[in-house]
Amino acid sequence: PGFPRTLGQARALDGICELDLVISLNIPFETLKDRLSARWVHPASGRVYNMDFNPPHTQGVDDLTGEPLVQREDDRPEAVAARLRKYKDAAKPVIELYRSRGILHSFSGTETNKIWPYVYTLLSSRIPPLLSDEEH
Predict the structure, then answer these.
(1) Quick one: residue 102, left, alpha or beta (phi over 0 = left, psi -120 to 50 = alpha)?
(2) Which tens digits make up the pLDDT trace of 100-113?
(3) Which residues contact 61 (CB under 8 A, 6 or more apart)?
(4) Beta bridge partners of 113
(5) DSSP 74-132
(6) Over the stretch 18-73, which tens digit does the pLDDT of each residue have?
(7) So where does this one cross the membrane (predicted)?
């Protein structure tokens, strides 16, 4: 989940700046649940591992210390499902607000490397390239 997550946050953001582009990534519920549920942490350092994308060298233990990894309560599958339902309910009016303003751009998929080129193309078309000192 990104920001703003609620209508209240969106209104507060309106008081700070005027948005001209909002990106919404539509990722299937099961994909999000699986990814978040695969997250384990080393409590002492805060190092985060994902059993699918960034697993520890030895399952269940931190790479640097060998200490056990833990799964946060809110990363357990049933907690993740509840969090995602709550987020979807809160975010729906935010999405509708930006859609009604004509500034919402939505992208759907399950893999970053497949979604990113489309997001990059949009951003590249809206943000002028930075010129180096030599080009001034």
Answers:
(1) left
(2) 999 999 999 998 88
(3) 67, 68, 69
(4) none
(5) GGSHHHHHHHHHHHHHHHHHHHHHHHHTT-EEEEE-S-HHHHHHHHHHHHHHHSPPPPP
(6) 999 999 999 898 888 888 889 999 999 999 999 988 999 999 999 999 999 999 98
(7) none
**Which residues, 6 or more positions from 75, have their beta carbon under 8 angstroms from its beta carbon?**
36, 37, 39, 40
CA distance 37 to 20: 34
- In order of their start, the domains of the chain are 7-37+73-125 (3.40.50.300)
First to last CA, the chain: 39
Residue with tokens 């919402």: 104
Selection from 74, 69, 70, 92 nearest residue 33 by Cα: 74
| Phi (first) and psi of residue 78, to 5 degrees | -70, -35
Q: Of the candidates 118, 112, 3, which has an alpha carbon nearest to the alpha carbon of residue 50?
A: 112
